[in-house]
Amino acid sequence: MASPSDRRYTREHEWVKVEDQVGTVGITDYAQDQLGDIVYVRLPEVGTQVRQMEPFGEIESVKAVSDLYAPVSGEVIEVNAALEERPELVNQSPYGEGWMIRVRLSDPSELDSLMTAEEYDRYTAELAPE
Description:
Blueprint: E1 8-9, E2 14-19, E3 22-27, H1 29-35, E4 38-42, E5 49-50, E6 55-61, E7 65-69, E8 74-79, H2 82-85, H3 89-92, E9 101-105, H4 117-127
Antiparallel strand pairs: 1-2, 2-3, 3-9, 4-6, 5-8, 6-7, 8-9
């Protein structure tokens, strides 16, 4: 699956889609595939300040527990409450219903340090075993 081109990506496999200075954040299809079945997602409370490339929560699968890293800095203005009851949405729809948080960006220039979809797809292709 090619990564959606309307987002930016981190090397830790998070994405951000920005509209009107608000970034919607989730994990990539590659990440959910590597993790396997998602059983729990711990997200911050609304009002929390997140900083670019620092952990903002955790995701737990049948295989492992992993930190979630903020692709951008800012204030959390919304959390996907549906993930409390249905964490499997991250597996089923990583770029849609499986989004995690919405952040009001404090420094939009941070987006320049993130990968485009094409760069991210090349990066993940290099990670794939031969």
